[in-house]
Automatic annotation (TrEMBL):
This is Macro domain-containing protein. CDD domains: Macro_OAADPr_deacetylase (cd02908). InterPro entries: Macro_dom, Macro_dom-like. NCBIfam families: PRK00431.1-6. Gene3D superfamilies: Leucine Aminopeptidase, subunit E, domain 1. Residues 1-170 form the Macro domain. It comes from the Bacteria.
Length: 170
């Protein structure tokens, strides 16, 4: 799988699937989750509500992933994954790795060839950005997948040089 790192807005990526750093309710929120729901439109929320009613009554568990339509986004699907809240006293790195692995698994099931990822858990969930970048890129590189290209989309342009160095070292 080819891996790219870019500065930009994940909601503007023209790919088969856009990954959403969702909250467990699947009903929208702030950050990436809110942006995806706003730009994608009510179709995404309708499918998320149906998922809650059918399978995820208590919400999507941390580290898991599930797909919906992408609505008005320039993609076919949104793959929702719930990242862990960072803790300085408890190792939650496995859950963060699960977000990327499970999103790729869902992408494989959908037949997606191209996937755009935000930096999961590095916003309001407080994961240190440089560590989140290393874990994201390392997990994407190490996870077997039929996806042709994964793109890590960084909202902060200042993080791009670091991500490019990490990717070059993988």
């Amino acid at each position: 799988m080819r891996i790219e790192v870019v500065h930009g807005d994940v909601t503007e990526q023209r790919v088969d699937a856009i990954v959403n750093a969702a909250n467990s309710s699947l009903l929208g929120g702030g950050g990436v989750d809110g942006a995806i729901h706003r730009r994608g439109g009510p179709e995404i929320l309708a499918e998320c509500r149906a998922l809650r009613a059918a399978k995820y009554g208590r919400g999507l568990p941390t580290g898991q992933a599930v797909a919906t339509t992408a609505g008005r986004l320039p993609a076919r699907w949104v793959i929702h994954t719930v990242g862990p809240v960072y803790s300085g006293t408890e190792d939650r790195a496995g859950l963060l790795h699960d977000c990327y692995r499970n999103a790729l698994r869902v992408a494989d099931e959908l037949g997606a060839a191209t996937v755009a990822f935000p930096l999961v858990s590095a916003g309001v969930y407080g994961w240190p950005v440089e560590d989140a970048i290393r874990r994201a890129l390392g997990t994407l590189r190490a996870t077997p997948s039929t996806v042709d290209m994964s793109r890590l989309v960084l909202f902060d342009p200042g993080t791009l040089p670091y991500a490019e160095r990490v990717l070059a070292d993988l």
